[in-house]
Amino acid sequence: MGVSLDKACLTDAVTIHEMKVKSFMPLLEKYQDFETSPANETVERVITQINQSFTDYFIIRQLEIAVGGIRVVKKENQIYSVSPIFILPEHQGKGIAQKVFTIVEQIYEDAKSWKLGTILQEKGNCYLYEKIGYKKTGATKAINDKMTMVFYEKHL
Question: How does pLDDT run across 126-153, given as a tens digit for each residue?
Fold first, then answer.
């Protein structure tokens, strides 16, 4: 499958931003979540995130081609969160995200638990996270009348 992660640097901010917009735009159009959608974030926000001492941003590559990104946020007590992960639409459904989670868990082998949030109405995303061992926390957050965020954890 040839999936790899390259740690992002500031020169990658525009590429990450473009992939993030392309990946999240269909969801923004569907759910109209203008305040919270990664598709509405600026390049400056990506730069800020790359610069955060508690954040690692990676470009996801398949056979050396950039196909998405993942941001890992280090919390305290060996707790990490994924916020966000995205795969370009033309590369979705190929098992790339599953492989990325395997790689990330190897990189952060000290992790005691992982957290993430996704859109409850996106059954495919929920299925993926549950398939790789994430469990719903029971917490949800209504964003608008079309969309609710649901939160997951995976304890190692």
Answer: 999 999 999 999 999 999 999 999 999 9
The Cα–Cα gap between 111 and 5 comes to 18
CA dihedral sign, ordered 103, 95, 115, 113: negative
Question: Residue 60 is encoded by which pair of tokens?
Answer: 């996801």
For residues 137 and 155, the answer to whether their CB atoms sit within 8 Å is: no
Residue 79's contacts (CB-CB under 8 Å, 6 or more residues apart) are 111, 112, 113, 114, 115
Token digits of residue 101: 């989670």
Record: fold of 3-110: Aminopeptidase (3.40.630)
Whole-prediction pTM value?
0.96
What ranges do the domains of the chain cover? 3-110
**3-class SS at 153?**
strand
